[in-house]
Amino acid sequence: MNPLLLTMIANVHRYRGALPGSRADLYREICQVMLWRRHDAKQLVVQPRGTQKETVLRELAYVMMSARTATLTRDACEDALRQVLPRVSAQLTAAAFLDDVSSNGLLVERERSLFGFAHLTIQEYLAAEHIREKSLVQTLVAAVEDDWWRECTLLYAAGADVGPLVQACLDVGSVSALALAFECAEEGNELDPELRDRLEQLLEAPTDTPFDDEHRKLVDGVFVLRRLRGTKQVGGGRLCPPVDARTYARFLRDRGGWDGMTRPDAADVPGDDEAVTGVRWLDAHEFTTWVNDTVGGPARFRLPHAAELGEQQVYDVWTADPPVDGQAPLWVWPGHRDPRRVTSEQLQARIREDIAGPALAVSMRTAILVMRVRRAARLVVRLTTDAERAPSAQWAHLEQTLTTLYRNTVAFAPDFALGVAGDDVERVDAVARHARQLDLDDYLRFITLLEEDVLRELGPLPELVLAGRPPGALRGAWHGVQETVRSLSAPGPDQKRRQRRPHLDLVEQALVGDLGGRVHPDRRAAHLLGLRGDVYALDVGRALSGAASRYSARLHHTTGMSPSMPRGQVPFDLPLGAEPEWIAEPHQAAQRIGSLAHHVVEAIGDQPGSRFLSDQARVVDEHAMSLLLRGHRPDPHAFQQARLALAILAAEADLQHIGGDGPAGVAEVFRRATASLAWLEDRYARRRPASEGIVLLALG
Question: Are 315 and 692 in contact (CB under 8 A)?
Answer without folding.
Answer: yes
